[in-house]
Amino acid sequence: MYGQTEHCIDSKMALTRLACILVLLSTHCYFNVLAVILRTTNDAPWANEFESIELSCLIESISTNDPRIEWKKIKDGEPSYVYFEKKISGDLEGRARIREPATLVITNATRSDSASYRCEVTAPIDQKTFDEILINLVVRVKPVVPKCAVPKSVPVGKAAELRCVEDEGFPKSQYQWFRNKEEIPDDPKTSPKFFNSSYTLNAETGTLKFSAVRKDDSGEYFCRAKNDAGHSECVPQTMEVYNINIAGIILGVLVVVVVLLCITVGICCAYKRGYFVSQKQTGNNYKAPAKGDGVDYVRTEDEGDFRHKSSFVI
């Protein structure tokens, strides 16, 4: 009798435990089913310009059969719809589509598409009626051909600056310089070919500065702008490093001095010989005597010869 009673008690306890487990399971499932939950496979995707890219928005659980799905683009803190009322709109109109249930596919990404995108799902029947995920998209842009400035000729020992600029690439371009198709290292001491060169290379700004050029620095230079999307190069330009001809400069100065001395001596000699003295009186500018004696003077054809015309006043 006692054994049967104990067996009944154990059976009741087992049934109670089973009932509790079933209640817990049903409660857990109840809350799972009545809560809309989203997830994404990649919250920071990237694509090269003009390629396609997916912004995944996956619905893990939901009870509502026809939830409201919206996508918003957030740039500079300002949100705008790109998917609303089951239609692509805004910047993505004609370039995107929705892949069920809520993934946004951009078929032709442009640089202006770099922004944050928010997937929002509203499920009125669920106990948790709303969920959202944020995805940050980066569209990489290949650099265009950079603008390069290389001096054509520089005297030995003088400073020289080579510049390279490119503003279209995204992310921001990094720069490399090449001489005779060989990359110039950031530190000249790391390469035997550039060990004796004195320069600084800034990969951020694209400037290559020589503090004092050498003959070995002559050659063809070009710059490469690069980022994660690709690279572009400018046309090679020649920089010539030449020696200053000191003897030629001195000879030129001496020639100029000799020419100036000859001109000065010539002018002095001309003054001494009277070539620059003006004659004060000639036969043509002889001044006739003043009238007052009652005689009219008439000039003859012969230079300097005058005769008087009788004219007496009584």
TrEMBL record:
Record-linked Pfam families: Ig_3, V-set
Subcellular location: Cell junction, Tight junction; Cell membrane
Gene Ontology CC: bicellular tight junction; cell-cell contact zone; plasma membrane; protein complex involved in cell adhesion
GO biological process entries: cell migration
UniProt keyword terms in alphabetical order: Cell junction, Cell membrane, Disulfide bond, Immunoglobulin domain, Membrane, Signal, Tight junction, Transmembrane, Transmembrane helix
Gene Ontology MF term list: cell-cell adhesion mediator activity; integrin binding; protein heterodimerization activity; protein homodimerization activity
Domain of life from the UniProt record: Eukaryota
UniProt key word Transmembrane: yes
SMART domains found in the cross-reference section: IG, IGc2
Matching InterPro entries: Ig-like_dom, Ig-like_dom_sf, Ig-like_fold, Ig_sub, Ig_sub2, Ig_V-set, JAM-C
Membrane topology reported for the UniProt record: Single-pass type I membrane protein
PROSITE patterns linked to this entry: IG_LIKE (PS50835)
Ig-like domain boundaries: 51-131, 143-240
Major location (coarse): other
Annotated TM spans: 246-271
PANTHER family: JUNCTIONAL ADHESION MOLECULE 3B, JUNCTIONAL ADHESION MOLECULE C
Family: Belongs to the immunoglobulin superfamily.
Name of the protein this chain belongs to: Junctional adhesion molecule 3B-like
Origin species: Salvelinus namaycush (Lake trout)
